């Protein structure tokens, strides 16, 4: 009996030891799972290193607040760029070759708002994990890269177009040639599409699994894509802005009126002196009238140069503030992250910089409308549902502005 009891005790103790040894890792895994859900999920690599997959966690109030902001940003971007497309396409005065680039920019920004922003918003609100599948991931990345690059490249071409139109108004006929301007627009979109093709044809594969949808982190492709999509365009825009600014500054220095008839000089009152003085004043008045006629033309060129410099300065400034942080991060990420851990950058930092870049698509239509009277007038009529006689109203406003300029010039004379 004693032997049987001792044997049963040994079996029970052995069973208890076995159960505790099994339960411990199960409880450990559960606690690790809860911790991963609340903070970040940790993947254990074969070499023992750890890579964190960032997860964004919001409570209900935060989700409503962030979702409302992202929705408003998307809707305002759609409305603003849609106004530009409708204005240029349906208003005769705005249907000019020089505005084709503005329409191309609006189409690119509108495509970002329709095909990119909604999916990024949903991904951010559910924690940052990609839930739309591996096939659509490649399509999404291609649309994102192509539309953003087309927007940036169009801004670059607009800066070159403004510079040539200001500095070479007689020898730069492209602005009046719709076919040449259309070729420029097509070239911009083809160059933008060329950046999206390498990951689709095997040069650099996108990071694409069940939870992560990230553009390829290949070193060569990263340098190529960021250079073509950002660094080269922003360099060209800065150079064009500097040249337009310098041209406006030189014009301001040249616009000084000389040769105005001097009044109050006392000469001799004899007849010969009076006749000579009258002849000299007639010559000075004739020369002054010629000077003022040429000065009116030069003054209009000078104002146009100043307006182009101010517009391009704000465009370049807004573009740099919105996109430069994101592209600096995109360029540095392949060098600071391991190949087996491409998402080592905190997800909230990446998403904040990405949405800051998307905000540039919202700013573009309002920047150009602020400096373009015809666009402002068209916006106002469309928003107030005054569709009829928009062309006649624009012509009337243009005539009033022209008369005001003439009155100001006459008052100066």
TrEMBL record:
It holds the Pfam family 7tm_1. Residues 80-368 form the G-protein coupled receptors family 1 profile domain. The keyword GTP-binding does not apply. Gene3D superfamilies: Rhodopsin 7-helix transmembrane proteins. One of its GO terms (molecular function) is G protein-coupled serotonin receptor activity. SMART domains: 7TM_GPCR_Srsx. GO terms for biological process: adenylate cyclase-activating adrenergic receptor signaling pathway; chemical synaptic transmission; circadian rhythm; positive regulation of MAPK cascade; smooth muscle contraction; vasoconstriction. InterPro entries: 5HT_7_rcpt, GPCR_Rhodpsn, GPCR_Rhodpsn_7TM. Coiled coil: none annotated. It is a multi-pass membrane protein. The chain crosses the membrane at residues 64-88, 100-120, 140-160, 181-201, 221-242, 308-332, 352-371. Keywords: Cell membrane, Disulfide bond, G-protein coupled receptor, Glycoprotein, Lipoprotein, Membrane, Palmitate, Receptor, Transducer, Transmembrane, Transmembrane helix. It is found in: Cell membrane. One of its GO terms (cellular component) is plasma membrane. Belongs to the G-protein coupled receptor 1 family. G-protein coupled receptor for 5-hydroxytryptamine (serotonin), a biogenic hormone that functions as a neurotransmitter, a hormone and a mitogen. Ligand binding causes a conformation change that triggers signaling via guanine nucleotide-binding proteins (G proteins) and modulates the activity of downstream effectors. HTR7 is coupled to G(s) G alpha proteins and mediates activation of adenylate cyclase activity. This is 5-hydroxytryptamine receptor 7. It comes from Oncorhynchus kisutch.
């Amino acid at each position: 009996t004693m032997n049987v009891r001792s044997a049963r005790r040994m079996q029970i103790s052995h069973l208890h030891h076995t159960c505790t040894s099994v339960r411990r890792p199960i409880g450990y895994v559960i606690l690790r799972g809860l911790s991963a859900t609340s903070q970040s999920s940790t993947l254990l690599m074969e070499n023992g290193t750890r890579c964190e997959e960032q997860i964004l966690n919001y409570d209900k109030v935060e989700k409503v607040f962030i979702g409302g902001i992202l929705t408003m940003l998307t809707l305002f971007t759609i409305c603003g760029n849609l106004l530009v497309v409708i204005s240029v396409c349906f208003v005769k005065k705005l249907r000019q070759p020089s505005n084709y680039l503005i329409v191309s920019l609006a189409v690119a920004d509108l495509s970002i708002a329709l095909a990119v922003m909604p999916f990024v918003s949903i991904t951010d609100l559910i924690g940052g994990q990609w839930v739309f599948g591996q096939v659509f991931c490649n399509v999404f990345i291609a649309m994102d890269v192509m539309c953003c690059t087309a927007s940036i490249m169009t801004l670059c071409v607009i800066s070159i177009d403004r510079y040539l139109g200001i500095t070479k108004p007689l020898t730069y006929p492209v602005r009046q040639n719709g076919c040449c301007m259309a070729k420029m627009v097509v070239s911009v979109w083809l160059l933008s599409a060329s950046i999206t093709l390498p990951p689709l044809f095997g040069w650099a594969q996108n990071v694409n699994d069940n939870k992560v949808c990230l553009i390829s982190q290949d070193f060569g492709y990263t340098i190529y894509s960021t250079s073509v999509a950002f660094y080269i365009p922003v360099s060209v825009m800065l150079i064009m802005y500097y040249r337009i600014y310098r041209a406006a500054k030189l014009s301001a220095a040249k616009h000084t009126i000389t040769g105005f008839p001097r009044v109050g000089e006392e000469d001799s009152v004899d007849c010969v002196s009076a006749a000579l003085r009258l002849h000299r004043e007639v010559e000075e008045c004739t020369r002054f009238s010629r000077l003022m006629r040429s000065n009116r033309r030069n003054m209009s060129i000078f104002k146009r140069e100043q307006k182009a410099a101010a517009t391009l300065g704000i465009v370049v400034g807004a573009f740099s503030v919105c996109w430069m942080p994101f592209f600096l991060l995109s360029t540095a990420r392949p060098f600071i992250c391991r190949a087996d851990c491409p998402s080592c950058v905190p997800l909230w930092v990446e998403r904040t910089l990405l949405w800051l870049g998307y905000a540039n698509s919202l700013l573009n239509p309002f920047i150009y409308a602020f400096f373009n009277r015809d666009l402002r007038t068209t916006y106002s009529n469309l928003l107030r549902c005054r569709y009829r006689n928009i062309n006649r109203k624009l012509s009337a406003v243009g005539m009033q502005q022209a008369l005001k300029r003439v009155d100001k010039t006459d008052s100066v004379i």
